[in-house]
Amino acid sequence: MLSIRVLTLFPDMFPGPLGDSLSGKALEKGLWSLEAVDIRGFTEDVHKTVDDTPFGGGAGMVMKPDIVSRAVESVKPRGRMIFLSPRGKPLTQDLVKELAAEEHLTLLCGRYEGLDQRVIDYYDMEEVSIGDYVLSGGELGAMVLMDACVRLLDGVMGNADTPEEESFENGLLEYPHYTRPSVWEAPDGSSHPVPEILTSGHHAKIAAWRHEQAERLTEGRRPDLWEAYTQKKAVNSK
Ligand code: SAM
Fold this sequence. Notes:
The chain is α/β, with parallel strands linked by helices and 238 residues long. The protein has seven helices and nine strands, in the order βαβββαβαβαβαββαα. Bound molecules: S-adenosylmethionine (SAM).
């Protein structure tokens, strides 16, 4: 069972969207657990101060190392300790798979300008980014990470929704999907049939068509993934 502790200044944000749908049902079934730890609870002054101005000057406030460290120390066992940060390594499906296989994860959500570097260094935190943009806090990043991990846990997805063919599984984006009606009448009166191959009942040809679509999409949309995929293919065919 995956047990996750999230250290945050906004514990009421959790479980938030993770309490619904797949992740919410899994939480109810005890397939994973989530505890939000309120960093502010570890302050000792009347104002419950968690941040201070940066040494060296500059804009914004910095989360204090003493307070955050007390919050971290309260969590045992911590398992992998992750600080959500735009400076971190990108959250990829490979990293998600690794994290989903852990027993314990501790996620630390930054706010303001970020966290005093000494705490990051002291605990040797793994910094993880959910993308090249700046959020106002790590909470949404932690939710993204948790959602991606939880859906991979045993018993969370139905058999019909197995992730083997999903985007990134084989280095490719996923092929396009179609469902009934087989001919869709669009609002402007035009008719849009599904690709004929999909109604042929020929499983091998459908699989080949989907693979080709996945390759075409990946090549067009994600040159970075495409290059890695073609290189791997070349090595494997040697
Ligand atoms: N001053 C920081 C910088 O420029 O790198 C940004 C701080 S941001 C306003 C506050 C917090 O939001 C960060 O400490 C981090 O926890 C979280 N955060 C922002 N963008 C993120 C991202 N792309 N991935 C993960 N966490 C992020």
